Amino acid sequence: MFLLPQPTSRIEKDRFIDIVKERLLKVYDEKIMAIGVYGSFALDEDGPYSDINFQVIVFDGQRIDDFQFIYPPFKVTIEALQKQQYITSAKEINADWSLNVARFIHTMPIYDPIMFFSKMKSIPLQISSYEIKDVMKECMIEELYVKMAKIRNLRLIQEETSLLLNAVEFCEQSAKLIGLANRYYFRSKTRMLEESLGIATKPHGYEQLVKLILQRDWDNSENIYKACEHLWTGINQWFNELGINYRSHSFPF
């Protein structure tokens, strides 16, 4: 068995984070406004094999390269953004919003003399209902509609394994929309489905499919298929209730 990756303790990670911080400040000095850590370590949910993600904020007009490397036994990502670039990213809204914003809200400052990261925490949540509905419509056309069509095709040709895999993806795509519609963000994708069951507003049929997936009830693909159909009906009813119309009755050109 190849030795890497190897487990490290939180104390070892903490020491390494301090080494990287001091190295960044020594090399780039006056370019840096703030340094933070995001991801599982910042959420206090890291495991022995978790990597470390650094967010470096540089002053507008300055530039530092991004880095991704293995410094045994650590896997390290360093993303550097100018102040305004970071603010723009924090305001971005797309189908993955409910998974992406935790990194902005839960960044752990390790060098932040002006409390930049603390000031940024509220920005990702400042999204309007119009923006949310536009993204939901786009996601329905580009992802959910296509995924449901694929699930129906797979059932017709009795490709059970592919059907099950696509059902999981269909459920995950639905979870992200539920999070977005409720302005609820998930701490990680690993726990997204379980977390989503506690969200107040969601389409009929969603809980049924999630529970089948979480229980690993794969013995009968027909049950999974029927749960997908039930959820698909629920999603369309949900969209009608929200006033989101994704179907066109004339050509857009």
TrEMBL record:
InterPro entries recorded: KNTase_C (IPR012481), NT_sf (IPR043519)
Pfam family, any one: KNTase_C
Domain Kanamycin nucleotidyltransferase C-terminal: 116-244
SUPFAM superfamilies listed in its UniProt record: Nucleotidyltransferase, Nucleotidyltransferase substrate binding subunit/domain
This protein's name: KNTase domain-containing protein
Originating organism: Cytobacillus stercorigallinarum
Phylogenetic lineage: Bacteria, Bacillati, Bacillota, Bacilli, Bacillales
